[in-house]
Amino acid sequence: xxVTPIKNSELDTLRxxxxxxxxxxxxxxxxxxxxxxxxxxxxxxxHLNKQLSTKDSLWFFARDxxxxxxxxxxxxxxxxxxxxxxxxxxIERIYIDIPYLRQGYGERLIDFxxxxxxxxxxxxxxxxVWEENPEAILFYKKQGFIITGTHxxxxxAEIQTDYIMTLDI
Length: 169
What we know:
It is a single chain. This protein has 169 residues and is of the alpha+beta class. It has a single domain, classed as Gcn5-related N-acetyltransferase (GNAT) (Aminopeptidase, 3-Layer(aba) Sandwich). Helix content is 35%, strand content 34%. It has helices at residues 11-26, 32-42, 45-52, 105-119, 134-142, and strands at residues 2-5, 57-64, 67-76, 88-96, 124-130, 146-154, 159-168. Strands 1-2-3-4-5-7-6 form a seven-stranded mixed beta sheet, with helices on both faces. It is globular and about 40 Å long. 22% of the residues are buried.
């Protein structure tokens, strides 16, 4: 697996992958209108383009040979969605495409995130994970993350609760 920065010219590829992986992870656990409203906002090209251009948001594709198998969004400094502390790094998005799940790629993206955090001289990594996603919670616990709190996650049509999970590095 190779991890490469996402270019603005790859916006359509990112959008397609993001919608496909988000749908696989969450559509069956949410009301269709909640997902539809969220997609309209979160995956709008203008919104994604703005996020790709945010200085302290770092976007990456995971690639295996010629295939894009996943993506990762890391936030530092003021780009973090909470805890605007200079010593933290947020994993805002980490998704592996459906055919590549459970093959170790998620762990490798966590390792990449840890390496990037160390390179940036961060003390910890944090992320939000939906309380109704036990598979992801277990995955993060296996990677060494611990639940340290909760926060509200705005799905546009409703507010959901995420666990805050952190990993000291």
